[in-house]
Amino acid sequence: MTDPAGFVDLHAHLFVGLDDGPRRIEDALALCRQMVETGTTLVAATCHQRGHFASVHRTEITEKFGELKIRLEAEDIPLRIVPNAEWMLDSATIENLPHLLPDLVTMGDAGRYALVEFPRPFPSFAALVPEMLSPHGLKPILAHVERYDIVAHNPNRVEELIQRGYVIQVNAESITNTYFPATIETCRRLIQRGLVHVIASDSHSVDRRPTRMKEAQAIVSHWTSSDTAQLLMTENPLAIIEGRDVRRAQSLGWLTRLRRR
Ligand SMILES: [Fe+2]
Fold first, then answer.
1. Burial grade of 23 (CB within 10 A; 0-12, 13-18, 19 or more)
2. Which of 66, 81, 103, 167 suits 190 as a labelling partner, its CA being 20 to 30 A distant?
3. Ligand 1 midpoint to CA 89 (Å)
4. Top-tier CATH class for 7-259
């Protein structure tokens, strides 16, 4: 489906005028060019739904996706895209979830995986989401787990979420942004313990939040191995887009974790 060496980015905001992503189509195309130049070959073009973006519906996402695909072809930008949404599962959305599901866009619109986020602090009902989605054939991907202190600082909580059925995603920028060393440390601990399945950019624009996949790959390769970086940034995200199961990365022993800081 894609260059096996290329990054597959499961989470990048590329739709103009729907959420807090790029403001103009030129900005979206600039971000796509940056992705290509830094090694990304396939992207799940993502739009927020629910929460502050409750007015964003499937029809708008489908329309904007079609527009972006045409522009990528017209501009000769070799980036494959599939549609996606990031669901804000606040309590109002959870209460109405079965009713809302037909309007919510899944990964690649394939009805197998759903990228989800929660209000902070991490709500207790989040633990029940996999079993809520399971009857609908859906598996949740928890976006940017590192944002939820109560979870991210406790590897046992992350393990419990995985056992309940979550796929765990970390943002590339959280691994690379040296203004937030504590977040980098959180990501390192989770990744070295095999508690992360996917690293994605969550990019919004070249200026405000560019893709940092290439920089993150170098750091994760140092923390773990180039094979693990490949698993988290190419193999697992591709499996998700193709509706297959993900694999767990190896958990490193304490001495190795200490050496590879
Ligand atoms: Fe996002």
1. middle
2. 81
3. 13
4. alpha beta
